[in-house]
Amino acid sequence: MMVQIQNSMKTIFTFRFYALLAMMLYSSLVELRAQNAGIASASQDSICSGSNVTLFLNNYNGNIQWQRFNGSIWIDETGSGAQNDTFSVALTASAEFRAFVTATGQADDSSNVITVGVITVNPPSGTGATRCGIGQVSISASGIGVIKWYDSATGGNLLSTGNTYQPTVSTTTTYYAEDNINGGQGQ
Fold first, then answer.
1. How far is it, in rounded angstroms, from Cα 18 to Cα 20?
2. For the segment 108-145, what is each residue's pLDDT rounded down to a tens digit?
3. DSSP secondary-structure letter at 59?
4. CB 178 within 8 A of CB 126
5. Residues 66, 99 contacting (CB under 8 angstroms)
6. Is residue 133 within 8 Å of residue 159, measured between CB atoms?
């Protein structure tokens, strides 16, 4: 906007009026956007690969469409619940999400962006042991988290924690080591 300063009260008043009007319009638009979009959050900020995370949208006004950023543009989610304020999605890679909100008589808007990290936990590497007869053996495993020892590959009993486990055996026995990082597991 070009403003010409003259020695008249009319020009100064006109400038002040337009400036005030512009500030009021801008403030109204900011308020409309803040009220429409809502606040997005996630049940967890990081999960194991293949696990589900639940996205939430609160304090919004209108219809929701969850979107995921693909590195260049926002893509609409198509899974069950992608248009609800609670949406669960399985992830194999880290992702950014937002809720796009539309409402009659209001400007379309999007919520804040939330990032959910995906942790890939590899199976631990291990070293077995042999012995002849009944007695104690020392087996070991290593990973990047806490090693947990089990008697079954799934649903087994926790036998020990730590990189080394020293059970007493009488027959050939298989033990399972799990690398556990903040709840994520690799067996």
1. 5
2. 999 999 999 998 777 888 888 888 889 899 999 988 88
3. S
4. no
5. yes
6. no
pLDDT for 135-149, tens place per residue? 899 999 988 888 899
| Secondary structure percentages of the chain, helix, strand, coil, to 5 | 15, 40, 45
Q: Which residue has the tokens 């709840």?
A: 183
Contact 97, 40 (CB under 8 A): yes
Q: 185, 126, 118: which is closest to 154 by C-alpha? A: 185
Residue type, 186: G
Q: What's the whole-model pTM score?
A: 0.58
Q: Is residue 62 classed as helix, strand or coil in its secondary structure?
A: coil
pLDDT at 12: 40
The set of residues, in sequence order, having a beta carbon less than 8 Å from that of 76 and lying 6+ positions away, is 65, 66, 67, 82, 100
* 132 contacts 61 by C-beta, under 8 angstroms: no
